Amino acid sequence: MADNSPTDQLTEAGRVFYARGWGRGASGNYSVLLARKPMRLCITAAGNEKGTLDETNFLELDDDAEILQGFGRPSDETMLHLSVYRLRPRARCILYSQTVAGMILSDRNFVDGAISIQGYEALKGLSGVTSHDHTELVPIVENSQDQIALSHVIQNVLLENPNIHAIYIRRHGLFAWGETVEQARRHIETLEFLFEAVERSAN
Amino acid sequence: MADNSPTDQLTEAGRVFYARGWGRGASGNYSVLLARKPMRLCITAAGNEKGTLDETNFLELDDDAEILQGFGRPSDETMLHLSVYRLRPRARCILYSQTVAGMILSDRNFVDGAISIQGYEALKGLSGVTSHDHTELVPIVENSQDQIALSHVIQNVLLENPNIHAIYIRRHGLFAWGETVEQARRHIETLEFLFEAVERSAN
Amino acid sequence: MADNSPTDQLTEAGRVFYARGWGRGASGNYSVLLARKPMRLCITAAGNEKGTLDETNFLELDDDAEILQGFGRPSDETMLHLSVYRLRPRARCILYSQTVAGMILSDRNFVDGAISIQGYEALKGLSGVTSHDHTELVPIVENSQDQIALSHVIQNVLLENPNIHAIYIRRHGLFAWGETVEQARRHIETLEFLFEAVERSAN
Amino acid sequence: MADNSPTDQLTEAGRVFYARGWGRGASGNYSVLLARKPMRLCITAAGNEKGTLDETNFLELDDDAEILQGFGRPSDETMLHLSVYRLRPRARCILYSQTVAGMILSDRNFVDGAISIQGYEALKGLSGVTSHDHTELVPIVENSQDQIALSHVIQNVLLENPNIHAIYIRRHGLFAWGETVEQARRHIETLEFLFEAVERSAN
Questions:
Q1: C143 band by pLDDT with thresholds 50, 70 and 90
Q2: With contacts defined as CB-CB under 8 Å, which chain C residues touch B150?
Q3: Residue D168: which of D24, D28, D14 has the closest Cα?
Q4: I want to staple B63 with a disulfide (CB 3.0 to 4.6 A). Which of A52, B39, B156, D79 is the partner?
Q5: Residues 135..174 of A with a Cβ closer than 8 Å to D: which?
């Protein structure tokens, strides 16, 4: 991927995910952290289809979700993104995907509190995982339109689970992060592939 | 989507849906409302594959389904489209899709009278829906080759269900409308995605 | 489809089917009837991947499967194709597809002697079918490497079932014909779509 | 496929497999045998996404997995590839794929020691198989991060099963070989298609 700018890389991710059916409609957002002190991020504006993003669909926001550059409405999920960047010092990109297999597992495993995946070689696609003999947990959080409440829940999950790579919001989608856009993409692709395997195994 | 003309947008929708396998053969039709008083619409002519439409595959019809412009036979479904435009003052586009998941649900839920979808964030892709905690009904109507009878049934369904975004004709396909081609497309994509989720959840 | 020559149209069909995963490997053949008296046909040579055909992959054969033009080995299935053309005076093209859903149904319904499909609007994609309230039978024939024996079975099936559009060879694939390449394509696409619907309905 | 160099052909295979979802992340490797005495092979370097390979992603190694040309880290799986080339005198290419159906069967059939496939015409896509009435075994080997131990197991499997075309490493992926890149590709495609058929048949 020879993309230079962060927005180019996010645009490409959106195009690829959309082509796979992983991000229909305007659900979810992509962001890149531009700076930490003070915190500035670049995030998709609300209401944009992810398959056809361009540079006009992004906003530059500060720590209070105030717009520094760009036109549009900050997504409701901006607080979720800020929560991840604050509690994960190495995260620089957050991506999102929405698939049938993931949503089904978020229902099926809701009582367990997390989707648990173990024993697959593909787990090595997650940063820090060097063996198939690893158990990855993807915590499941109940959805809510109250973004403040949802952010608090996300923060607690992040604090209690230092090794996770992603969180699933029930019947919503997968939020995964990484140190680069490429790594965040790999995390999304790895987990969505494993969701499909786990979901079909149980049939 | 930088398409200008309505036929360009319908052509693009057909190409995208066909590529996904959502509209094989000549089933279903796409239309755009050109004017209300008097009513004029532009609709795909009968017998056209939706994946390879061009401007010659469209007819301009009046309120009586008489051809004002174009060559071809008006689709049997013209009356359905006219029914929707008459009873939905804001609708300006009707699209169609045909998938395995949708057809299976139209059988499985036929006795309930509708496919019911609740709790998914993706429901917010439907106009007027602002929370995942929403119950969307897609009424199921028995198919018939008698278009006059079918139109009357469709009209009753539209009158009795002011908030629906689409109707499913059993073992036929999904008819969804919107205020623009883009919105109708989003409705189709949102519902087909949710049909897949609901259908697989029950296995 | 602006293709002129029959081989162009067959090449395009191969490319499309291969892209969908309907014809991996060298299974099956495509043919076009060039003339009836005497009978001449153009058929894919043995051992060719269908996704990357070009004009060198076709042979022109006579009624005895002797090569009139082209280089290569006539496919073992040449006799099947000749049987269809002899017993279906209007057929001018035979196509083939191989999918998981079709193969599963060919096993599941083998004892019934045919895959039976009824009630779907999509059935109107088959020539001569004007209502969803139609029952289409796709006879299932046991596979055999003895092409002479297999041809005789196929001939009996064709004689006993004047209205069928296709035959399924168990755990092999779907053989469908039409008056044009476009019609044969539509028959394949219609039936494969319906196989997927019928197969998933039973889960 | 008009590709000249082996790396071009491997790059193309990676692109095609990735597009189908058969090789997300950096799992698995592709290699081509350049010479036997002394043994030299060209293999994908560790950590490369298979969908976007180019000539810089390959290493030329000798029999001891020492780098003769190229930059990067030899994959952990290099020993597996060397094992296959040593024990299969005609193999010149090894490819890899990772699918949900294959991984599910590698679990489901682990106690049997192999995935067994019989009766499908598509089996004729495997070299040396001339009839659908053939039973193909794909031995399943437990995964291990100890590559030396894993190689020994692979060697025993190859010695005990002279007619196999591929091996499945449980919850990892399919390793298949061929006399050319094209043949290895056909083996992967044939087996993955049949895995899908066998896996869905059992639901």
A1: very high
A2: none
A3: D28
A4: B39
A5: none
